[in-house]
Amino acid sequence: MSTGITPSRTVYAPLQKLDKCCQCDAKFGLRLCSSCGERIYCSTECQKTDWKDHKQSCKQTERINLELFWPFFAYMAELSRVDPGRPVHPAILHKIVNRPIPNVSAQVLPDGSSTNVVLLGDPIHPDQTGSPEWWPTAISERMRQKLFRRILREGHALPITLSICVALLAEMYTTTYDPEKEPNVGDPSTGMEFDQFSHNKRFRLQCERNTITDFGICKGSAEVKAMDTFGYFVESEHSKSNVEFFRGQDPKDHYWIYFKTLREEFVMDLCMFTFNFAMCVAHGEPYCPSGGEYPTFSDLAGFFIGRELRQNTPLLQYEQQRFSVLHNKALQGIVRTPHFNELGERILVAFMERVAGRKTNEVEQDLLIAWTMSNRRMMAQNLDQKAFLNYPSFVPTGILYDPGEETSPHEDDEETLKYWKKLGRMERKGVISPNQLIGALRKWDALPAEERMAWRKGHKKI
To answer: Which Gene3D superfamilies does the record associate with it (predicted)?
Structure first.
């Protein structure tokens, strides 16, 4: 029987610094409790003295290794990208009529900038997305699927990363031990429906055996070459003489997640795949929530930069600003109940706009709220069932290469780049129209290799 009272929890954020011993206020020789990471002591004696009061919460604190847990966040990101409520990318629903081969060259646009151009033709049936009908000139099925995944994973980097962070705050850092709590209604043996507010445990993330003391969103730019970004030309559905252009995901407006301990910092980036930085969790099945409600993915886009990888990896992100989620008082206030009320939704959207530095549109706002709630349910279920204990003892990561990516570029790449630049200059000077530019580029892309060779020798003209 319902009491009509909305359940509420309290956020218990971890300590951000070692200021003084919780027993004697000493400020030297400080260290955290090695079991829970929640209490500060200066000596073994102080820890023993405090044990009577501390043991109840300490014994009910379980520390989760972020280095093994992060693929679950990558799963959340993948699920968001296939959400039916997310607008379908135009390039998914139109035929690809050129060959946007990665790692070859960028095409110069009329405004002087460069990108890897994708020419979109006639609309196709949704059932044909990712098929040979969608991209008939693909070199191989492997390359076709790589391009499909890059486009599918493009966009909405901020609501994806923010929804994960808020879900983590809501479901892990509001859990606290209550010895009087009834048996967990999420236990399958009870035959009762899962309740995301049924935690009877406190969980905390750790990395390199140190407690995570803060996490949040980093905003900045990603180290990406122009040839690994996309720009799209699409013919108007009403008139083939009208051509529209729009850019893909902008590497200068990039978002990723940081995690801090008292000693060092770690980075998780889930939004670089579209830039052809194709690092993945090679086997995504173990990280899918149980119960058959959720789909599985063969791979999960993303990477985690821990201590070892940081020492052997060049800088990929350039941070401009950061925004703590764990220690944000406004966000702490809205996650204490299972659902967001209208005020809570406004606070969540306001935080996103503060990070973005702009007014967000209604689609972004709706997706953020929906994905945060979905991620909260998955996170709560994971913690309740301790699904993280069944994750692999190492994360099976890999890179999804393109065919021939390890070899030298195609022999006509240099001439292709020169031709694109020449046409770009002609369009800027008004010698040819934008439609003529697109037509010439399309014709060039369709030429067989031997005809391109003849053109280079001056035997043929386009």
So the answer is: 6.10.140.2220
Number of domains in the chain: 3
Q: Looking at the structure, do residues 439 and 295 belong to the same domain, yes or no?
A: no
Torsion sign across C-alpha atoms 138, 143, 145, 148: negative
Domain membership of residue 272 (yes or no) is yes
Task: Give the pLDDT confidence of 127-168 residue by residue, as tens digits.
Answer: 999 999 999 988 888 889 999 999 999 999 999 999 999 999
Amino acid at 323: F
- Looking at residue 424, its pLDDT comes to 60
Q: Are residues 55 and 81 in the same domain?
A: no
Q: Which residue has the tokens 């393109």?
A: 402
Same domain, yes or no: 25 and 123? no
Same domain, 296 and 369: yes
The answer to whether residue 4 is domain-embedded is no
438 within domain boundaries: yes
Indicate whether this model's pTM tops 0.85: no
Domain carrying residue 321: 64-399
Q: What are the residues whose beta carbons fall under 8 Å from the beta carbon of 306, sequence distance 6 or more?
A: 67, 207, 208, 266
Q: Are 130 and 29 within one domain? A: no
Q: Are residues 431 and 383 in the same domain?
A: no
Range 355-360 average pLDDT: 97
20 and 122 within one domain: no
Q: Do residues 446 and 348 share a domain?
A: no
Is residue 285 included in any domain, yes or no? yes
